[in-house]
Amino acid sequence: MVQSIASSHPPPFQPVRRIALEALSGADMDALVGGSEPLIVEGLDATWPDACRSDDIRDVAVFETNPNSVFVNGQQRFGLTSEEFFRRLEAGDNVRIFDGELATSVTDAVTRPQSLFARLRRLDLFRYDKTKPVCFIGGGGAITVLHHDFEMNANWHMVLYGERQVYLWTHDQSASLFKLPLLGLSLIPFSWGLLGYRFARGQSCRLKRGELLFMPPGCWHQIEYPQPSLAVTYAFHRTPSEKRTGERLGAFWFGFMTLTQAVPAGRALAIAALPLIVPWGVFAGIYIWGRFLAVKLLGRLAGAVTVPLRHAETGLLHAYLPLMRWVRRRLWMGY
Ligand SMILES: O=C(O)CCC(=O)C(=O)O
Ligand SMILES: [Fe+2]
User: pTM higher than 0.90, yes or no?
Assistant: First the structure.
């Protein structure tokens, strides 16, 4: 089971910069969309209707449909109803939903103040052109493991109920997080990042109701649910080129994730597609050690190694994309 970050005696974290909604300046607004550092805006809930500030999580977490899946003690389970989920959440079980869909009446009511969200709408570059946010809910010590979003989108992550513990590392800390090439998921627990995690400069925050966290593209995050908590995320790209790159990376990633789901489920097509991971595995073996050691040993000259590797990554990606898209289309089971 995934360990909480605190249990691995991490190096100290910096606090995330915070700003009150009323104090937001034009420069802060720019930093909230185009910045390269995490930033929190506090006090959005003052602009929400009372119904969205209820003390009962069921009043706020109104689902459109039953969840596609629920993570129970970290294991993905299909076929649970919303009612079953809430029952377990309220009993203090380790359960969470990743990528749920809230009723539009709720998402519309909390997408405010309008002056703030107008800024996002103007970008017109939301992931998959969907303006409705996705929802994340959990409790009982559940953990969303260390990852960055696959499509290299930026995020506004806003808490609607309870509070959650968030750990963040900007993308430049990837090498120290023992990142696998092309992958936005740290498949190795944080505390096993060899020596790397001791070098990683992270930030942390306790994110509460009415607080909105900006995560820049590629920002690593681990989210922990010591108590029941609900949040929504608005995912977006800032420029057409960010969007293009993000969609390509997403195609690779989801293809890979699809195989990790469909092979254990015994899908014959997935087993036939397994050789797709062999060249990637070979490359990953070299990359992990090569990049990590190069960055640590070569210091400012590390670019001599990392730049060619980045080109190799790009080449690999282009060869794989059509195949990975196809795998995803045929086999993805969802979060
Ligand atoms: O809140 C969570 O559990 C995960 C959120 C997340 O990964 C995201 O917003 O990208
Ligand atoms: Fe995420």
Answer: no
